[in-house]
Amino acid sequence: MEKTTLIKEGKAKRLYNTDEEGYVWVEYMDQATAFNGKRKDHIVGKGVLNNNIDTLLFTMLADNGIHTDFVKKISDNEQINKEVTIIPLETVVRNAASGSFQRKFATPYLQKFDKPVVEFFYKSDELDDPFINTNQAIALGIIKPGESEKLQEFALKINTLLKARFEKAGLELVDFKVEFGKTADGEIILADEISPDSCRLVDLKTRESFDKDVFRKQTGDLVTVYQEVLDRLNNSQEEA
Ligand code: C5P
């Protein structure tokens, strides 16, 4: 398979068409952004780390019955995905309070929830990805009636699997964001990426951050903590 024309350059990935119908070529870039792209840095090694972490997590999810767009890793920083139409919603699942939830409701940092909280944000750079509820998403034609429940159920299943996998690696999954896409025959599948760019992870014992918060808050070296996440996942692979 060969890559052909560039479809889109996002904040951390480039997406290309391929010479085979139904597949896209994804290139993970050495770039980190924060505050909806307002801060942008070149970070050598980040693309390779996220490609490896994403491959490991999407493979684990697929092995557990989650339908995803992941096909195969083809180089250190590239993979092939199924072509999907992305539903323009960022689906966030939270197990504990942090980030925008903590800011909005002034809750203590990492306060645990009895049940995971699912939230939707409308994917729009111009509007700064605003919070959106089910009725608003239906009114805007982003989803059809009934799909919100499906997406929430799907996201919660992913949460259960990810949470258990990270726990084996000594990490608590605080929250994460996923995106879903529709295949040509209308099936909704997990798409985009799961990496420390899109998850909040803290050490089970020390509560140190092992995710993009170290870049957002400038409290640590991104490559060092992402490498630690990958190493911990690899080292706990056998027992997983
Ligand atoms: O900022 P907020 O607390 O709403 O983020 C919740 C989760 O979603 C975090 O893990 C964050 O990394 C992720 N997220 C993301 N992309 C965005 C916004 C949030 O991956 N555009």
| N-C termini distance | 32 Å
- The CATH architecture assignment of the largest domain turns out to be 2-Layer Sandwich
Number of contiguous helices: 6
* Helical content (DSSP H or I, runs of 4+): 25-40%
Structural class, from secondary structure content? Answer: alpha+beta
Rg of Cα set: 17 Å
Mean pLDDT: 97
Q: How many domains, as an integer? A: 2
Return the CATH class of the largest domain: Alpha Beta
Are there runs of 5+ residues with pLDDT below 50, and where?
none
Strand portion, in percent? 25-35%
CATH-assigned fold name of the largest domain? D-amino Acid Aminotransferase, Chain A, domain 1
Largest sheet: 6 strands, antiparallel
What is the fourth-level CATH superfamily of the largest domain? ATP-grasp fold, B domain
Ligands present: cytidine-5'-monophosphate
The total of beta strands comes to: 13
**Shape summary:** globular
- Element-by-element helix/strand order: EEEEEHEEEEHEHHEEEHH
Keywords: ATP-binding, Ligase, Nucleotide-binding, Purine biosynthesis
Catalytic activity: 5-amino-1-(5-phospho-D-ribosyl)imidazole-4-carboxylate + L-aspartate + ATP = (2S)-2-[5-amino-1-(5-phospho-beta-D-ribosyl)imidazole-4-carboxamido]succinate + ADP + phosphate + 2 H(+)
Pfam family, one: SAICAR_synt
EC number: 6.3.2.6
